[in-house]
Amino acid sequence: MSPENYQVAIVKYGERSTRRSDVYLNHHIYGRSDGPIDMDYFFWVVRNGSRTVVVDTGFSRHGGQVRNRTFGIDPARAYAALGVDPEAAPDVVVTHAHYDHIGNLGIFPRSTVVIAQREYDFWTSPLGQRGQFHYSVEDDEIAALVTADRDGRMQTFDGTLDLAPGITLVELGGHTPGLSVVLVSTDEGTVLLASDAMHYYEELDADMPFAFVADLPAMYTGFDTITELVASGRVTHVVSGHDPATLSRFTPVTDGELAGIAATIGSFA
Q1: Based on the structure, what is the number of domains in the chain?
Q2: What is the pTM of this model?
Q3: Could you say which of 90, 134, 145, 253 has the lowest number of CB atoms within 10 Å?
């Protein structure tokens, strides 16, 4: 497939404040002082004149409230502000099945849900119910994935998937068993939507894994893969999953309902 170019929209829909020792695995081993750290919550929309792809759908109001997260704009309102029409059934990519990434799948009841097979298999297995894993999911949201599968609206893959010309999914694992990242071609270069393969840019810069991890070697290997993609020139822009510095790295949205809480990469044409 010859690539097409897209615009990537990054939307902040929620936030929290916590401490560094809560977000970095075994933070004490790095000899760095503990202290406050903020976390932003994003979803992403990839679009051009002929195609729209939604990447993750954020946490639900319930999923955020039970974990003391601050809910910002309702994702349904944000999608409307971007001109995303659920009735058009855009593909919905699920990078992984944590509550803050699949909490609003119901907005898109007719869409195909795209997820790594390994990710889907894990969360629908008994192991996904064990305490260290289950904390990060909501049962009704996993059930929504099962419903999409039952209804024939699920597309799974192993390893990599060329979802459309200029949009490639790559399974890295680490944070969850089948976590995926998304490569998107834009007129400003290729964008890597890292999702939770890299919550914070500091994770990559300082080689500090996130606290919640299913496979630590895979998480480290994911860091290496992202580093190599940038060093090789294949990737121009890396978009983190939760870093509050993310929006400031890209073109801010300055008008309308998303002013100050969204940014874009590339032109929409």
Answers
A1: 1
A2: 0.97
A3: 134
